[in-house]
Amino acid sequence: MNQMKSHKIQSILTFIYIFLIPFTAVLYHCLLTTPAFQKHFPMETVQPYLSFFFNLLMVLCLLSFISIIITTCNNTKKQIELNMLDSTQQTILKQEKEIETLRTQILEKQSYIHSHIDLAIDLCESGNYDDMTTLISSLSSHVKRNYPDTYCKNALLNTLLQEKKAIADQLNVKCEFRILLPDHFDQTFSDFTITSIFSNLLDNALESCKNCHDLYPQNDSLFIELSTDFKANMFMIRMKNSKDPKDLFLNKTTKDDSSSLHGHGLSIIESIARDYDGTCQWSDDGDCFVSLIMLKHT
Hints:
Elements: H1 2-33, H2 35-40, H3 43-125, H4 129-146, H5 155-170, E1 174-178, H6 185-188, H7 191-215, E2 223-231, E3 234-242, H8 259-262, H9 265-275, E4 279-284, E5 288-296
Parallel strand pairs: 1-2
Antiparallel strand pairs: 2-3, 3-5, 4-5
């Protein structure tokens, strides 16, 4: 209701500024040059009052125009803030959904392995060693086939890296992950923090590599290098990935569609870094992009 009222007032002020000022100027000129008006109202008597009235009207019109500018700027600022808030909320919902998906995958994998281990124990206790050997061999083949890489001891992060590695393989992007985690990593960093940082980093890197591949199909040296380390009480994340040299870094990703989801990836990481008394550094090195994140851990 207040917005509609404000819009009506702004429309009235706009009408005043656009139409009344020219009309006032024409009317004032006509009065000064019309003999009939000068005959009944001597200029030396009326002109001071006319000048004051029209000057006052011009000032009011000018103030109305300034008010329009201020109101428009405030409304634009509020709209930008609302759009950013909405985009951030969508990104957070996306991250939460990804966490649930990863948790489900982890539980399913653990359940499959545990059930086969329990069955192998039962076969051993019953003396069916041949069946037990066959079952263990089958389980071993399944693990090698479905869990080709184990990057770290954190199940959530390990599953996330496996999923991103599978996407990178589809894009013919070479991935190299070297993950070292500090003690009490799970207690220091929540699942949401882990997913937000690594998922956004890798999503941006994969998107950059995909764009580079679309522009230069002959380029077979696309890569993503992700490493983590810790010193004293600082946890460090460093990532380097291929990018189009012509694509300049503007503190956002290059994805055209769903840019609201991807465009806030870096800002979310920066917000997390501030929460952990850390820092972020983004470096555009021409044909590659380097990210360095430092977080305080206890």
